[in-house]
Amino acid sequence: MRWLICVLFQIFYYTELLYLASVALTKISILLFYLRIFPQKSLRKIIYFTIGLCIAYMIAFVLATALQCIPVRIAWEHWDGEHHGKCIDLNADAWCSAAGNIILDLIVILLPMRVLKDLKMNRWRKFGVMLMFLGGLL
């Protein structure tokens, strides 16, 4: 039974890493889509900068989570109290990761709004296009 608990903690450990990487890579794919449809040079510079932020976020939090305990195996063996090592405050790591993720979400969602606001179409159609891009809030 003890080995099963360790296996479950190990699965959780690896899925945390996959989650952090997939969240950042999803944002990067949306930003690459923006590069394809928005030709404005000023917006493109901001998009490239935001891609850099997403990459930095991914590297920082994947590494922090992967190395949350030294030795690493303590991440899934510490529950029994028999194994000892040094671990970071996982609660603080999760809150910082969530805050960074929310900030990046808002940046990615709000980036195209300035360009969409300047479109030459009637107010309701423009509103509909903006709603389509804001669908990421849900």
The order of strands across the largest sheet is 1-2
Rg: 20 Å
As an assembly, this protein is single chain
Structural class: mainly alpha
Strand content: under 5%
Termini Cα gap: 40 Å
* Global shape: elongated
How many DSSP H or I helices?
6
From N to C, what is the helix and strand string?
A: HHEHEHHH
Question: What's the rounded overall pLDDT mean?
Answer: 89
Strand count: 2
- Structural domains: how many: 1
Largest sheet: 2 strands, antiparallel
Helical residue percent band: over 70%
Stretches with pLDDT under 50, minimum 5 residues: none
Main location: membrane
GO cellular component, one term: membrane
Pfam families: Fung_rhodopsin
Protein name: Rhodopsin domain-containing protein
Write structural notes for this entry.
It is a single chain. The protein is an all-alpha fold and 138 residues long. The protein has one domain (2-109). The protein is 75% helix and 3% strand. The protein contains six helices and two strands. The protein has a two-stranded antiparallel ribbon with strand order 1-2. Helix 1 runs parallel beside helix 4 (90-110) and helix 2 runs antiparallel to helix 4. The model has no long low-confidence stretch (mean pLDDT 89). Keywords: Membrane, Transmembrane, Transmembrane helix. Residues 11-137 form the Rhodopsin domain. Its main location: membrane.
